[in-house]
Amino acid sequence: MPFLLIDFPSFNPIAVAIGPFAIRWYALAYIGGIVIGWLYARSLLKNERLWGGPAPMSLVQVDDFILWVTLGIILGGRTGYVLFYNLPFFIDHPTAIFRLWEGGMSFHGGFLGCVVAVMWFAYRNGISILSLGDITTAVAPIGLLLGRIANFINGELWGRATDASLPWAMIFPNDPSHLPRHPSQLYEAGMEGILLFTVLAIMIRLGALKRPGMILGAFILIYGLTRIAGEHFREPDVQLGFLWGGLTMGMLLSIPMLIVGGILIVWAVRRGAPRPAEAIR
Q1: Does residue 278 lie in a domain region?
Q2: Residues of the domain holding 46
Q3: Strands 6-7 and 170-171
């Protein structure tokens, strides 16, 4: 083994085990992302300066929204994985759709599930869809960061093979080829989590929440860019491989995000900040 090659850390995917019951790091990542995101969302809503007046929703409403967005993430994420990544298998094994503990969640499906949750909750509560979308996507990178770290702990969704001279190349124990690979989960954690959160946080401090749809559009656009960049280092799902022109499914699903995100940003800039009467409504 080349002397620069890093041994994959020996992680136990189970964080806590009590008798026959086990809690995995992946489940804790989802729980932690939702709880920390909820606390961050509450702190943003309390700061009227960021909104140019009273926030467009109450703390009680955002507390109620947590259940909606959680269901959107889980149902959308699983549905997206079934449809986008492994439909033939699930057609032959329909009961496997409900075995969530075996893994298989799609970000793009989870995002669409969140979109449905945002639109439905906003309509039922008389809240601006764009403002609720802003607050939801402002906190989303927290969950993405924890989720990618959980992928790394599980030794799954590893990167493409690389030269063993790369100082941080790793051999993942679940990889049957035992090739040195990019730890692409950590690349994605840095881009989709830390970088995206930092950019959105700076935009918020500069007043982006005063323009409904600005943070939502920036999240969609920047995530699409970072996901496409990360896919250049990530091994495609074995059941799909490379698609048209060497693209991966993750790349193809992210391309529409670039368009939608750009449209939302332009719309938010042209629409401008709402007048005080509009902000209170």
Answers
A1: no
A2: 6-56+128-271
A3: parallel
Would you say 148 is a known binding-site residue?
yes
| CB burial readout 223-260, b (16+ within 10 A) else e | bbbbbbebbebbbbbeeeeeeeeeebbbbbbbeebbee
Q: What is the pLDDT at residue 5?
A: 61
128 contact partners, CB below 8 Å, separation of at least 6: 56, 122, 212
Q: How far apart are CA 28 and CA 274, in angstroms?
A: 39
Flag whether 85 is in a domain: no
Element containing residue 16 per DSSP (H, E): strand 14-18
Q: Is the pLDDT of residue 280 over 90?
A: no
pTM score: 0.90
Residues shown for the chain: 281
Half-sphere exposure in the Cβ direction for 247 (13 Å, CA): 11
Q: pLDDT tens across 25-37, in order?
A: 888 998 999 999 9
Helix (H, G, I), strand (E, B) or coil at 114: helix
* pLDDT mean over 195-222: 97
For residues 230 and 184, the answer to whether their CB atoms sit within 8 Å is yes
Q: Which residues contact 196 (CB under 8 A, 6 or more apart)?
A: 141, 144, 219, 222, 223, 226
Q: What is the mean pLDDT of residues 239-255?
A: 88
Give me 137's structure tokens.
């996507």
Residue 195 lies in a domain: yes
Residue with tokens 């989720």: 147
What pLDDT shows up at residue 274? 64
Q: How many domains does the chain have?
A: 1
- Percent above pLDDT 90 for the chain: 62
Beta-carbon count within 10 A of 202 CB: 10
Instruction: Reply yes or no on whether the pLDDT at 146 is more than 90.
Output: yes
190 occurs within a structural domain: yes
pLDDT of res. 6? 67
Tokens coding 237? 């799902």
